[in-house]
Amino acid sequence: MPQIRGIIFDMDGTLVDSRLDYDAIRREMGLSEGMPILEGLERVPDGSQRDRMLEVIRAHELRGADEAVPIEGVLEFLSHLEERGVSSAVLTRNSRESTSRTLTRLNHSFSQIVTREDALPKPDPAGVHLIARRWGFPPHEMIVIGDYLFDIQAGRRAGARGILFAPGLRPDYANEADFVLQHFRDAVDLIDRMACLDEPIAQ
Ligand SMILES: [Mg+2]
Fold this sequence. Notes:
Layout: E1 6-9, E2 16-17, H1 22-29, H2 37-42, H3 48-67, E3 69-70, H4 74-84, E4 87-91, H5 96-103, E5 112-114, H6 126-135, E6 142-146, H7 149-158, E7 161-165, E8 179-181, H8 187-196
Parallel strand pairs: 1-4, 1-6, 4-5, 6-7, 7-8
Antiparallel strand pairs: 2-3
The chain binds magnesium ion.
């Protein structure tokens, strides 16, 4: 990998623990078990049912924003990146409203923030491409860090490397990521190791 010039973070479960209960959101929206929330919403035509579902999402996201706490080690890692001149961005499937409210918890200035109003949601790579265009350097000089499969897929489809943040049990999709991070205290060492690898990313 050449230089690492930017790191794109997922928000919920990666930067902050917002205690979002996705199963409860699905139940209240009337979605089947395991259905991704935004994709479930997309299947419903405009109208009162869709408006009600949007209100469910909004209520949960705003509650999550108010309860969000930084994940341990994240603030130190963000300051380290800032000192090294590595850009940091947020790419989230959340709304702009809940994202800006949540990020006030971190007291860190991200150079790019991309929400579902700005680009097709992950696992689509559009958000990563958008950040790459705004930063002015290519995805292969970036890393995407997230706690879910969609984060890793969005990064890889754009040509970035992916770090899966998995503080608990290693999920079965962990092998889709280039690396797995269990605690942010190890993040500096990990990106240093990644920067030493010169192999191009297998697409
Ligand atoms: Mg997440």
